[in-house]
Amino acid sequence: MSHTLRDGIALAALAIAALGYDLRPRRDRVRQEAASPETGNVILVVSDGLRWQEVFRGADSLLVFGDPDAMGGAAADTRRRFWRATVAERRKALMPFVWGAMARDGQLFGNRDLGSGMRVTNGMNFSYPGYNEMLVGYPDARINRNDYGPNPNVTVFEWLNRREAFRGQVGVIGAWDTFADIFHRRRSGLTVHASREEPLDARAHAAAMRLLKEQRPRALFVAYVETDDWAHQGRYDRTLNAAHTVDTYLAALWAAVQSHPQYRGKTTLIFTADHGRGATARDWKDHGPAIRGADETWVAMMGPGMQAHGEMRNTTIVTEAQIAATVAAAVGLDYRREVPAASQAIHAAVRR
Predict the structure, then answer these.
(1) Model confidence over 332-352: pLDDT tens digits?
(2) Number of C-alpha atoms within 13 angstroms, CB side, residue 285?
(3) How far apart are CA 78 and CA 63, in angstroms?
């Protein structure tokens, strides 16, 4: 049985088990209703440190055919799985859900080859400052290390949880203890599952699926971290494997929510990264203020009422700080009305 067929069967079974509803294929496309604070749901998924190069170009020839240590003795298998003759084939082999459903029904920003850029603005280009910018809507110069401690800023998820329509229906899951501080678990009162227990991403994903089944949150944050971990260890083969696995997790989350009437046609999926990393064979493992390209990131989105533009071309540069307002806009709310310091939502993603 092929990897693709096996993954498809497993994802369908996982979705059905997760929410307890049959997932019946339909040829006709269901007309999605516009979200409102009463009906809308949003899921924000982060693949930590995943480069735009892999998302939009697929496997990098500099690394797949370069330093054998980066391939960990698995060069032949990695090339068989992820190397293809063209960019379009390579990126779809790596992330079939992103380049299937999301590219068909949504919007993708950050392909610099097409004049579409996205960047972080905090100047630090590593995780805590990136997550703060993404979730609060603006950078904070005080947050300059990953062990900063509890976040003095209110994230958009805490902001949602303070609203009557969302109270107790907001969940946070990530395979990193620091998420408890980023979301200020004590102050926010959010349900936060933050743990570095192995296997990291598999445990985080299982927790996300379980939360969807048992608590049915209306706003959910999920972070997968192995794309960053394996890159730091210089294992490009495992970085590609981790990115491919995140894509299967996205497909499972989407299949699960589309199988339940609370979510079906009423849920927006946003997929992004907290920072970029180096672009050369020498520095692709690293990121930070001194690494060129580490501020370059991307975002993919789809949901009800969102126009299906696919890959965006020749756009103005969007920023990580726009994610917070875009999360709120996905459920019909104006974040900047109450948080004027935040950046505006990404316009193309906002319902008309």
Answers:
(1) 999 999 999 999 999 865 543
(2) 14
(3) 11
Q: Which residues pair with 300 in a beta bridge?
A: 108, 271
| Beta-ladder partners of 222 | 45, 173
The DSSP 8-state label assigned to residue 177 in this structure reads T
User: Cα 236 to the chain's mean position, in Å?
Assistant: 20
Return the closest-CA partner of residue 47 out of 291, 271, 203.
271
DSSP per position, 263-293: TTTSEEEEEE-S-----STTTTT--STTSTT
Q: Are 75 and 236 in contact (CB under 8 A)?
A: no
pTM of this structure: 0.91
Low-confidence residues of the chain: pLDDT under 50: 1-33, 351-352
Residues 6+ apart with CB under 8 A from 250: 45, 97, 98, 102, 269, 271
Which residues sit opposite 220 in a β-bridge? 43, 171
